[in-house]
Amino acid sequence: MPELPEMENYRLLLNQKISGHVIKDIEINRIKSINVAPEDFQEKVLSQKVVNIERKAKHLLFHLENGYILLLHLMLGGLMYYGSDDDKPKRTIQIQLSFGGETLFFIGLRLGYLHLYDEQGIKQELSHLGPEPLEQAFTLDLFLKMIEKKRGRLKAKLVDQQFISGIGNCYSDEICYHARILPIREISELTQGEAAQIYRSIKEVLQDALKHGGYIETPFFKDDALTGGFDSLCKVYDREGETCLRCGSKIKKEIISSRKVFYCTGCQK
Questions:
Q1: Any idea where the Formamidopyrimidine-DNA glycosylase catalytic domain is (predicted)?
Q2: pLDDT band at 229 (very low <50, low <70, confident <90, very high)
């Protein structure tokens, strides 16, 4: 599932490609991917200029000139592609927005969605989200207060969107590896020094992943050389049985609370 770095990468590229452009055609191939009647969607979205694209956690918000907002969540297996019918991926397209010569394709939205809201509706929909980990307001002092008296395993807390926004399965494991701490540790047992290291690792891992375009391998547009660059840089995620690049031990995989957890048995304590 796309996480903060993937969605932030999309946001940056989308603002370059479609910000200020008018939506000239809409094709909805899966009605369940939207939250209003297709006629209402067409009426409020067609011929509207995209003012800008914003990110909140794992969501993207397409702000339209008329004040309405398209809220995107790609969920498991979702991705986007910007280009033409000739070069788009050979995948099922749930929704497409045409900007004239090129089109934004929403792919794999059987679980994801592109919903339409007004400003008040967006606030209500996203009101549950925790702080953004790359914002300046997310300080070490704030993080230490957030985990004070918290219980549960570290992995579960890092992927809790009400606790911190935007971190999922991949980056929670990469953060714990970077911090040399086991993701299966109880959060209440962390020392203040370990908690501070987790905080630093959150910042460093997410910023590094964003720098390399996240881990989604499918390019966002033709000749896109950035998107997916972090996939080959993952140290533990999806590397079960491989050798740790840091200490030479084997990477282990467990299933905890229906979630995959990857970690090194040698250098994470």
A1: 2-112
A2: very high
